[in-house]
Amino acid sequence: MEKFRIFGGARLAGTVTISGAKNAALPCLAATLLTAEPVYLLGLPRVRDILTMEKVLAILGEHCEHQNGTTTVVMGRATETHAPYELVRTMRASVLVLGPLVAARQRARVALPGGCAIGARPIDFHLAALAQLGADIRLEHGDVVAEAPNGLRGAEITFPKVTVTGTENLLMAASLAVGRTVLRGCAREPEVCDLAAMLQAMGARISGAGTDTIEVEGVGELGGCTHRVIPDRIEAGTYLMAALLLGDGVRIEGCVPAHLAAVLELLAAAGATFTTEEHALVVPRQDRPLSGFSLTTREYPGFPTDLQAQAMALATQAQGRSEVVETIFENRFHHVLELKRLGAEITVEGHRAIVQGPRRLQGTTVMASDLRASAALVLAGLVAEGETIVDRIYHLDRGYEAMEAKLARLGARIARFNPGPFV
Ligand code: EPZ
Protein backbone atom coordinates (compact mmCIF):
# COMPACT_ATOMS: atom_id res chain seq x y z
CA MET A 1 0.00 0.00 0.00
CA GLU A 2 1.60 3.26 -1.14
CA LYS A 3 2.57 5.95 1.34
CA PHE A 4 3.99 9.46 1.35
CA ARG A 5 7.28 10.22 3.09
CA ILE A 6 7.56 13.92 4.01
CA PHE A 7 10.44 15.79 5.63
CA GLY A 8 8.86 18.91 7.14
CA GLY A 9 10.02 22.50 7.16
CA ALA A 10 10.94 22.94 3.48
CA ARG A 11 9.81 26.32 2.17
CA LEU A 12 7.55 26.44 -0.90
CA ALA A 13 8.02 28.81 -3.85
CA GLY A 14 7.01 28.94 -7.50
CA THR A 15 3.87 28.16 -9.47
CA VAL A 16 1.38 25.34 -9.01
CA THR A 17 -1.24 24.71 -11.70
CA ILE A 18 -4.72 23.64 -10.64
CA SER A 19 -6.39 20.67 -12.35
CA GLY A 20 -9.99 20.31 -13.46
CA ALA A 21 -12.57 19.88 -10.70
CA LYS A 22 -13.26 16.23 -9.79
CA ASN A 23 -16.74 17.20 -8.56
CA ALA A 24 -17.57 18.89 -11.86
CA ALA A 25 -16.03 16.14 -13.99
CA LEU A 26 -18.09 13.39 -12.34
CA PRO A 27 -21.58 14.79 -13.18
CA CYS A 28 -20.34 15.91 -16.62
CA LEU A 29 -19.21 12.35 -17.39
CA ALA A 30 -22.58 11.02 -16.19
CA ALA A 31 -24.36 13.53 -18.44
CA THR A 32 -22.85 11.83 -21.52
CA LEU A 33 -25.46 9.09 -20.95
CA LEU A 34 -28.10 11.60 -22.08
CA THR A 35 -27.02 11.62 -25.73
CA ALA A 36 -26.13 9.13 -28.46
CA GLU A 37 -23.75 11.69 -30.01
CA PRO A 38 -20.03 12.00 -29.13
CA VAL A 39 -19.16 14.33 -26.23
CA TYR A 40 -15.73 15.97 -25.88
CA LEU A 41 -14.73 16.78 -22.30
CA LEU A 42 -11.63 18.88 -21.69
CA GLY A 43 -9.61 19.30 -18.52
CA LEU A 44 -10.76 16.16 -16.69
CA PRO A 45 -8.35 15.54 -13.79
CA ARG A 46 -6.46 12.25 -13.93
CA VAL A 47 -7.62 11.04 -10.51
CA ARG A 48 -8.99 7.70 -9.37
CA ASP A 49 -12.62 8.76 -9.05
CA ILE A 50 -12.65 9.80 -12.71
CA LEU A 51 -11.21 6.45 -13.75
CA THR A 52 -13.90 4.74 -11.66
CA MET A 53 -16.67 6.76 -13.32
CA GLU A 54 -15.24 5.86 -16.73
CA LYS A 55 -15.40 2.19 -15.73
CA VAL A 56 -19.05 2.63 -14.73
CA LEU A 57 -19.77 4.30 -18.10
CA ALA A 58 -17.97 1.45 -19.90
CA ILE A 59 -20.27 -1.08 -18.17
CA LEU A 60 -23.19 1.08 -19.31
CA GLY A 61 -22.04 0.83 -22.91
CA GLU A 62 -20.07 4.06 -23.26
CA HIS A 63 -16.52 4.24 -24.56
CA CYS A 64 -14.03 6.83 -23.24
CA GLU A 65 -10.90 7.76 -25.20
CA HIS A 66 -8.21 10.18 -24.01
CA GLN A 67 -6.00 12.24 -26.28
CA ASN A 68 -4.12 15.51 -25.61
CA GLY A 69 -6.23 16.45 -22.60
CA THR A 70 -9.52 15.68 -24.33
CA THR A 71 -11.75 12.81 -23.23
CA THR A 72 -14.08 11.65 -26.00
CA VAL A 73 -17.13 9.74 -24.78
CA VAL A 74 -19.00 7.77 -27.43
CA MET A 75 -22.21 5.84 -26.85
CA GLY A 76 -21.98 2.15 -27.68
CA ARG A 77 -24.64 -0.23 -26.41
CA ALA A 78 -27.40 1.97 -25.01
CA THR A 79 -29.20 -1.01 -23.53
CA GLU A 80 -27.11 -1.47 -20.37
CA THR A 81 -28.68 0.08 -17.29
CA HIS A 82 -26.99 -1.62 -14.31
CA ALA A 83 -24.20 0.07 -12.30
CA PRO A 84 -22.87 -2.80 -10.12
CA TYR A 85 -22.06 -2.71 -6.41
CA GLU A 86 -18.38 -3.59 -7.02
CA LEU A 87 -17.88 -0.15 -8.57
CA VAL A 88 -20.51 1.90 -6.76
CA ARG A 89 -19.13 0.88 -3.34
CA THR A 90 -15.76 2.35 -4.31
CA MET A 91 -17.29 5.67 -5.32
CA ARG A 92 -20.66 6.94 -4.10
CA ALA A 93 -20.78 9.53 -6.87
CA SER A 94 -21.66 6.63 -9.22
CA VAL A 95 -25.20 7.45 -8.08
CA LEU A 96 -24.97 10.30 -10.62
CA VAL A 97 -25.79 7.82 -13.39
CA LEU A 98 -29.26 7.24 -11.89
CA GLY A 99 -30.96 10.36 -13.23
CA PRO A 100 -29.54 10.25 -16.77
CA LEU A 101 -30.15 6.49 -17.15
CA VAL A 102 -33.81 6.58 -16.13
CA ALA A 103 -34.33 9.68 -18.32
CA ALA A 104 -32.54 8.41 -21.43
CA ARG A 105 -33.08 4.63 -21.17
CA GLN A 106 -36.27 4.55 -19.03
CA ARG A 107 -34.57 2.23 -16.55
CA ALA A 108 -31.67 2.25 -14.10
CA ARG A 109 -30.34 -0.27 -11.63
CA VAL A 110 -27.70 1.27 -9.37
CA ALA A 111 -26.28 -0.34 -6.26
CA LEU A 112 -27.40 1.59 -3.21
CA PRO A 113 -24.19 3.28 -2.05
CA GLY A 114 -23.23 2.36 1.48
CA GLY A 115 -22.12 4.96 3.95
CA CYS A 116 -18.57 6.16 4.01
CA ALA A 117 -16.08 7.44 6.56
CA ILE A 118 -17.68 10.87 6.83
CA GLY A 119 -21.28 9.81 7.25
CA ALA A 120 -24.32 7.73 6.27
CA ARG A 121 -24.79 9.79 3.11
CA PRO A 122 -28.21 8.48 2.08
CA ILE A 123 -29.72 9.28 -1.32
CA ASP A 124 -33.34 9.51 -0.19
CA PHE A 125 -33.71 13.04 -1.57
CA HIS A 126 -32.54 11.86 -5.01
CA LEU A 127 -35.04 9.00 -5.04
CA ALA A 128 -38.03 10.99 -3.77
CA ALA A 129 -37.42 13.66 -6.40
CA LEU A 130 -37.08 11.13 -9.26
CA ALA A 131 -40.36 9.56 -8.09
CA GLN A 132 -41.98 12.98 -8.40
CA LEU A 133 -40.85 13.00 -12.04
CA GLY A 134 -42.80 9.77 -12.45
CA ALA A 135 -40.12 7.14 -11.96
CA ASP A 136 -41.12 3.96 -10.19
CA ILE A 137 -38.45 3.48 -7.51
CA ARG A 138 -37.85 0.26 -5.59
CA LEU A 139 -35.06 -1.51 -3.75
CA GLU A 140 -34.08 -4.96 -5.00
CA HIS A 141 -31.24 -6.95 -3.40
CA GLY A 142 -29.34 -3.81 -2.43
CA ASP A 143 -29.90 -2.08 -5.75
CA VAL A 144 -32.04 0.94 -6.46
CA VAL A 145 -34.23 0.14 -9.46
CA ALA A 146 -35.77 3.16 -11.16
CA GLU A 147 -38.16 2.68 -14.08
CA ALA A 148 -40.11 5.09 -16.26
CA PRO A 149 -41.36 3.06 -19.25
CA ASN A 150 -43.40 5.99 -20.48
CA GLY A 151 -40.69 8.55 -19.83
CA LEU A 152 -40.42 11.19 -17.09
CA ARG A 153 -42.81 14.11 -16.70
CA GLY A 154 -41.91 17.55 -15.33
CA ALA A 155 -42.90 18.40 -11.75
CA GLU A 156 -42.39 21.00 -9.03
CA ILE A 157 -39.86 19.57 -6.54
CA THR A 158 -38.50 20.97 -3.30
CA PHE A 159 -35.41 19.34 -1.78
CA PRO A 160 -35.82 18.95 2.03
CA LYS A 161 -32.12 19.81 2.40
CA VAL A 162 -29.48 21.05 -0.04
CA THR A 163 -27.88 18.14 -1.88
CA VAL A 164 -25.19 18.72 -4.50
CA THR A 165 -25.40 15.41 -6.37
CA GLY A 166 -29.16 15.32 -5.77
CA THR A 167 -29.49 18.65 -7.59
CA GLU A 168 -27.23 17.34 -10.36
CA ASN A 169 -29.15 14.06 -10.75
CA LEU A 170 -32.44 15.91 -11.07
CA LEU A 171 -31.01 18.51 -13.49
CA MET A 172 -29.99 15.70 -15.80
CA ALA A 173 -33.25 13.76 -15.44
CA ALA A 174 -35.47 16.83 -15.91
CA SER A 175 -33.60 17.82 -19.08
CA LEU A 176 -35.33 14.94 -20.93
CA ALA A 177 -38.62 14.92 -18.99
CA VAL A 178 -41.78 15.99 -20.83
CA GLY A 179 -42.77 19.50 -19.73
CA ARG A 180 -41.49 21.92 -17.14
CA THR A 181 -39.69 21.07 -13.92
CA VAL A 182 -39.06 23.52 -11.10
CA LEU A 183 -36.40 22.47 -8.58
CA ARG A 184 -36.41 24.39 -5.28
CA GLY A 185 -33.84 24.22 -2.48
CA CYS A 186 -31.08 23.50 -5.02
CA ALA A 187 -27.37 23.41 -4.38
CA ARG A 188 -25.62 26.53 -5.71
CA GLU A 189 -22.10 25.08 -6.07
CA PRO A 190 -19.99 26.09 -9.08
CA GLU A 191 -19.95 22.40 -10.07
CA VAL A 192 -23.76 22.49 -10.42
CA CYS A 193 -23.45 25.56 -12.66
CA ASP A 194 -20.77 23.80 -14.71
CA LEU A 195 -23.04 20.80 -15.30
CA ALA A 196 -25.90 23.13 -16.27
CA ALA A 197 -23.61 24.87 -18.77
CA MET A 198 -22.69 21.51 -20.33
CA LEU A 199 -26.34 20.42 -20.49
CA GLN A 200 -27.25 23.73 -22.17
CA ALA A 201 -24.49 23.12 -24.73
CA MET A 202 -26.19 19.77 -25.39
CA GLY A 203 -29.50 21.56 -26.01
CA ALA A 204 -31.09 21.48 -22.54
CA ARG A 205 -33.30 24.42 -21.57
CA ILE A 206 -32.24 25.37 -18.04
CA SER A 207 -32.51 28.66 -16.15
CA GLY A 208 -31.54 29.61 -12.59
CA ALA A 209 -28.46 27.39 -12.11
CA GLY A 210 -26.41 28.87 -9.27
CA THR A 211 -29.52 29.97 -7.41
CA ASP A 212 -31.68 27.85 -5.13
CA THR A 213 -34.43 27.60 -7.77
CA ILE A 214 -33.75 26.03 -11.17
CA GLU A 215 -36.29 25.69 -13.99
CA VAL A 216 -35.93 23.09 -16.73
CA GLU A 217 -38.05 22.82 -19.88
CA GLY A 218 -37.66 19.21 -21.01
CA VAL A 219 -36.61 18.53 -24.61
CA GLY A 220 -37.06 15.44 -26.78
CA GLU A 221 -33.37 14.70 -27.16
CA LEU A 222 -29.94 16.10 -26.38
CA GLY A 223 -26.95 16.34 -28.69
CA GLY A 224 -23.22 16.05 -28.20
CA CYS A 225 -21.01 18.97 -27.17
CA THR A 226 -17.52 20.08 -26.27
CA HIS A 227 -17.13 21.19 -22.66
CA ARG A 228 -14.17 22.17 -20.48
CA VAL A 229 -14.75 21.50 -16.77
CA ILE A 230 -14.04 24.28 -14.25
CA PRO A 231 -10.86 24.27 -12.13
CA ASP A 232 -10.92 22.50 -8.79
CA ARG A 233 -11.63 25.08 -6.09
CA ILE A 234 -10.89 22.57 -3.30
CA GLU A 235 -7.48 21.73 -4.75
CA ALA A 236 -6.78 25.47 -5.10
CA GLY A 237 -7.83 26.06 -1.47
CA THR A 238 -5.58 23.24 -0.34
CA TYR A 239 -2.50 24.74 -2.03
CA LEU A 240 -3.46 28.19 -0.73
CA MET A 241 -3.25 26.82 2.80
CA ALA A 242 0.08 25.15 2.05
CA ALA A 243 1.37 28.52 0.79
CA LEU A 244 0.15 30.28 3.95
CA LEU A 245 1.96 27.72 6.08
CA LEU A 246 5.32 27.59 4.31
CA GLY A 247 5.27 29.82 1.23
CA ASP A 248 8.06 32.16 0.06
CA GLY A 249 6.00 33.37 -2.88
CA VAL A 250 3.57 30.87 -4.43
CA ARG A 251 1.42 31.48 -7.50
CA ILE A 252 -1.68 29.26 -7.77
CA GLU A 253 -2.37 29.26 -11.49
CA GLY A 254 -5.54 28.29 -13.37
CA CYS A 255 -7.96 28.63 -10.45
CA VAL A 256 -11.08 30.79 -10.05
CA PRO A 257 -10.67 32.86 -6.85
CA ALA A 258 -14.33 33.85 -7.09
CA HIS A 259 -15.23 30.21 -6.30
CA LEU A 260 -13.37 30.54 -3.00
CA ALA A 261 -14.85 33.84 -1.80
CA ALA A 262 -15.87 32.57 1.66
CA VAL A 263 -12.47 30.94 2.19
CA LEU A 264 -10.53 34.04 1.09
CA GLU A 265 -12.69 36.27 3.28
CA LEU A 266 -12.11 34.12 6.37
CA LEU A 267 -8.34 33.80 5.82
CA ALA A 268 -7.92 37.52 5.10
CA ALA A 269 -9.76 38.30 8.33
CA ALA A 270 -7.29 36.02 10.11
CA GLY A 271 -4.43 38.09 8.71
CA ALA A 272 -3.51 36.17 5.55
CA THR A 273 -2.11 38.29 2.72
CA PHE A 274 -2.58 37.35 -0.93
CA THR A 275 -3.68 38.97 -4.18
CA THR A 276 -6.23 37.64 -6.65
CA GLU A 277 -6.22 37.72 -10.43
CA GLU A 278 -9.06 36.41 -12.60
CA HIS A 279 -7.46 32.96 -12.88
CA ALA A 280 -4.80 32.98 -10.18
CA LEU A 281 -4.04 33.49 -6.52
CA VAL A 282 -0.67 35.04 -5.59
CA VAL A 283 0.54 34.34 -2.06
CA PRO A 284 3.66 36.17 -0.81
CA ARG A 285 5.69 35.03 2.17
CA GLN A 286 3.50 35.77 5.18
CA ASP A 287 5.07 38.38 7.47
CA ARG A 288 3.23 37.13 10.54
CA PRO A 289 1.33 34.03 11.67
CA LEU A 290 -2.42 33.88 11.18
CA SER A 291 -4.64 34.78 14.10
CA GLY A 292 -6.96 32.08 15.37
CA PHE A 293 -10.20 31.94 13.39
CA SER A 294 -13.73 30.54 13.64
CA LEU A 295 -15.23 28.68 10.73
CA THR A 296 -18.56 26.95 10.23
CA THR A 297 -18.99 24.81 7.12
CA ARG A 298 -22.04 25.69 5.01
CA GLU A 299 -23.48 24.90 1.64
CA TYR A 300 -22.07 27.11 -1.15
CA PRO A 301 -21.42 30.03 -1.09
CA GLY A 302 -20.47 29.35 2.55
CA PHE A 303 -17.18 27.84 3.71
CA PRO A 304 -16.92 24.41 1.98
CA THR A 305 -16.91 21.26 4.09
CA ASP A 306 -14.27 19.88 1.70
CA LEU A 307 -11.75 22.42 3.03
CA GLN A 308 -12.61 21.94 6.72
CA ALA A 309 -9.89 19.39 7.47
CA GLN A 310 -7.21 21.40 5.67
CA ALA A 311 -8.25 24.55 7.55
CA MET A 312 -7.89 22.66 10.82
CA ALA A 313 -4.31 21.78 9.92
CA LEU A 314 -3.73 25.48 9.21
CA ALA A 315 -5.27 26.39 12.58
CA THR A 316 -2.64 24.35 14.43
CA GLN A 317 -0.14 27.05 13.42
CA ALA A 318 -2.40 30.09 13.98
CA GLN A 319 -1.93 32.33 17.03
CA GLY A 320 -4.51 31.52 19.69
CA ARG A 321 -7.82 29.70 19.68
CA SER A 322 -9.58 28.54 16.51
CA GLU A 323 -13.01 26.96 16.29
CA VAL A 324 -14.15 24.64 13.50
CA VAL A 325 -17.82 23.66 13.26
CA GLU A 326 -18.91 20.99 10.73
CA THR A 327 -22.58 21.28 9.76
CA ILE A 328 -22.78 19.24 6.54
CA PHE A 329 -21.61 15.75 7.54
CA GLU A 330 -22.10 13.97 10.83
CA ASN A 331 -18.66 12.44 11.14
CA ARG A 332 -16.03 14.53 9.43
CA PHE A 333 -13.42 14.90 12.19
CA HIS A 334 -11.36 11.76 11.48
CA HIS A 335 -8.29 13.91 10.88
CA VAL A 336 -8.38 15.22 14.49
CA LEU A 337 -6.81 12.19 16.15
CA GLU A 338 -4.12 11.98 13.48
CA LEU A 339 -3.33 15.70 13.79
CA LYS A 340 -3.04 15.19 17.57
CA ARG A 341 -0.52 12.41 16.97
CA LEU A 342 1.58 15.04 15.21
CA GLY A 343 1.34 17.29 18.28
CA ALA A 344 -1.72 19.44 17.56
CA GLU A 345 -3.84 20.55 20.51
CA ILE A 346 -7.47 19.93 19.52
CA THR A 347 -10.54 19.18 21.61
CA VAL A 348 -13.81 18.01 20.06
CA GLU A 349 -17.27 18.72 21.45
CA GLY A 350 -19.82 17.15 19.09
CA HIS A 351 -19.59 18.97 15.75
CA ARG A 352 -17.23 21.59 17.16
CA ALA A 353 -13.44 21.32 17.31
CA ILE A 354 -11.33 23.79 19.28
CA VAL A 355 -7.74 24.18 18.12
CA GLN A 356 -5.09 25.92 20.26
CA GLY A 357 -2.14 27.26 18.28
CA PRO A 358 0.60 27.60 17.44
CA ARG A 359 1.83 24.12 18.38
CA ARG A 360 5.10 22.53 17.34
CA LEU A 361 4.31 19.50 15.21
CA GLN A 362 6.65 16.51 15.22
CA GLY A 363 6.73 14.02 12.40
CA THR A 364 5.38 10.51 12.88
CA THR A 365 3.31 7.96 10.99
CA VAL A 366 -0.32 8.98 10.38
CA MET A 367 -3.17 7.29 8.56
CA ALA A 368 -5.48 8.87 6.01
CA SER A 369 -9.15 8.04 6.39
CA ASP A 370 -10.88 9.99 3.65
CA LEU A 371 -9.95 12.21 0.74
CA ARG A 372 -9.86 15.60 2.44
CA ALA A 373 -8.53 14.34 5.78
CA SER A 374 -5.56 12.96 3.81
CA ALA A 375 -4.85 16.44 2.45
CA ALA A 376 -4.91 17.84 5.98
CA LEU A 377 -2.33 15.27 7.08
CA VAL A 378 -0.06 16.17 4.16
CA LEU A 379 -0.26 19.87 5.09
CA ALA A 380 0.58 19.05 8.71
CA GLY A 381 3.44 16.79 7.58
CA LEU A 382 4.91 19.63 5.50
CA VAL A 383 5.11 21.69 8.71
CA ALA A 384 6.09 18.99 11.21
CA GLU A 385 9.71 18.60 12.30
CA GLY A 386 11.37 15.52 10.93
CA GLU A 387 9.81 12.69 8.97
CA THR A 388 6.08 12.10 8.56
CA ILE A 389 4.75 9.00 6.85
CA VAL A 390 1.18 9.34 5.53
CA ASP A 391 -0.37 5.92 5.09
CA ARG A 392 -3.32 4.89 2.86
CA ILE A 393 -2.77 7.68 0.36
CA TYR A 394 -5.09 5.88 -2.05
CA HIS A 395 -7.69 8.14 -0.41
CA LEU A 396 -5.73 11.16 -1.65
CA ASP A 397 -5.37 9.76 -5.16
CA ARG A 398 -9.15 9.83 -5.51
CA GLY A 399 -9.23 13.60 -5.81
CA TYR A 400 -5.77 15.19 -6.04
CA GLU A 401 -3.86 14.89 -9.31
CA ALA A 402 -0.13 14.24 -8.79
CA MET A 403 -0.09 15.97 -5.41
CA GLU A 404 3.42 14.91 -4.45
CA ALA A 405 4.80 16.04 -7.83
CA LYS A 406 3.09 19.43 -7.57
CA LEU A 407 4.35 19.94 -4.02
CA ALA A 408 7.88 18.74 -4.83
CA ARG A 409 8.03 21.20 -7.73
CA LEU A 410 7.34 23.93 -5.16
CA GLY A 411 10.23 22.71 -3.02
CA ALA A 412 8.53 20.33 -0.61
CA ARG A 413 10.50 17.27 0.47
CA ILE A 414 7.84 14.68 -0.30
CA ALA A 415 7.92 11.36 -2.13
CA ARG A 416 5.59 8.44 -2.73
CA PHE A 417 6.88 4.99 -1.90
CA ASN A 418 5.62 1.46 -1.71
CA PRO A 419 7.12 -0.46 1.21
CA GLY A 420 6.24 -3.71 -0.52
CA PRO A 421 3.95 -6.53 0.51
CA PHE A 422 2.75 -7.23 4.06
CA VAL A 423 3.20 -3.59 5.12
C1 EPZ B 1 -21.00 16.38 -2.77
O1 EPZ B 1 -21.37 15.18 -2.13
C2 EPZ B 1 -19.50 16.28 -3.01
N1 EPZ B 1 -19.23 15.14 -3.87
C3 EPZ B 1 -18.78 16.12 -1.67
O2 EPZ B 1 -17.38 16.11 -1.94
C4 EPZ B 1 -19.11 17.33 -0.80
O3 EPZ B 1 -18.49 17.17 0.46
C5 EPZ B 1 -20.64 17.44 -0.62
O4 EPZ B 1 -21.27 17.51 -1.92
C6 EPZ B 1 -21.05 18.67 0.17
O5 EPZ B 1 -20.57 19.80 -0.44
C7 EPZ B 1 -19.44 15.27 -5.20
O6 EPZ B 1 -19.86 16.29 -5.69
C8 EPZ B 1 -19.11 14.06 -6.05
P1 EPZ B 1 -24.78 16.22 -0.44
P2 EPZ B 1 -22.94 14.79 -1.99
O7 EPZ B 1 -25.80 15.38 -1.11
O8 EPZ B 1 -23.70 15.33 -3.12
C9 EPZ B 1 -27.37 14.67 3.26
C10 EPZ B 1 -15.18 15.30 -1.81
O9 EPZ B 1 -14.39 15.29 -0.87
N2 EPZ B 1 -28.19 14.01 2.24
O10 EPZ B 1 -24.72 17.67 -0.77
O11 EPZ B 1 -23.00 13.33 -1.71
C11 EPZ B 1 -25.94 14.10 3.30
O12 EPZ B 1 -25.90 12.96 4.13
C12 EPZ B 1 -16.63 14.93 -1.59
O13 EPZ B 1 -14.87 15.63 -3.00
C13 EPZ B 1 -29.30 13.28 2.64
O14 EPZ B 1 -29.60 13.17 3.83
O15 EPZ B 1 -23.34 15.59 -0.68
C14 EPZ B 1 -25.15 15.26 3.84
O16 EPZ B 1 -25.27 15.27 5.25
C15 EPZ B 1 -16.87 14.46 -0.17
N3 EPZ B 1 -30.06 12.66 1.69
C16 EPZ B 1 -25.84 16.49 3.26
O17 EPZ B 1 -27.17 16.03 2.89
C17 EPZ B 1 -29.76 12.76 0.34
O18 EPZ B 1 -30.52 12.20 -0.49
C18 EPZ B 1 -25.17 17.07 2.03
O19 EPZ B 1 -24.94 16.00 1.14
C19 EPZ B 1 -28.63 13.51 -0.03
C20 EPZ B 1 -27.87 14.14 0.93
Please describe the structure with a list of short key phrases separated by commas or semicolons.
single chain, 423 residues, alpha/beta, UDP-n-acetylglucosamine1-carboxyvinyl-transferase, Chain, four-stranded mixed sheet, globular, binds ligand EPZ
Secondary structure blueprint with pairings:
Layout: E1 3-7, E2 12-17, H1 22-31, E3 39-42, H2 48-59, E4 62-67, E5 70-75, E6 82-83, H3 85-88, H4 98-105, E7 107-111, H5 124-132, E8 136-140, E9 143-147, E10 156-158, H6 164-175, E11 180-184, H7 190-201, E12 205-207, E13 213-217, E14 226-228, H8 233-246, E15 247-253, H9 261-269, E16 275-277, E17 280-283, E18 294-296, H10 308-315, E19 320-325, H11 334-341, E20 345-349, E21 352-357, E22 365-367, H12 371-383, E23 387-391, H13 394-397, H14 403-409, E24 413-417
Parallel strand pairs: 2-15, 3-14, 6-7, 10-11, 18-19, 22-23
Antiparallel strand pairs: 1-23, 1-24, 3-5, 4-5, 7-9, 8-9, 11-13, 12-13, 15-17, 16-17, 19-21, 20-21
Helix pairs in contact: 1-2, 1-7, 4-6, 5-6, 6-7, 8-12, 10-12, 11-12
Residues 22-23, 26, 93, 119, 121-126, 161, 163-166, 305-306, 328-329, 371-372, 399 line the site of ligand EPZ.
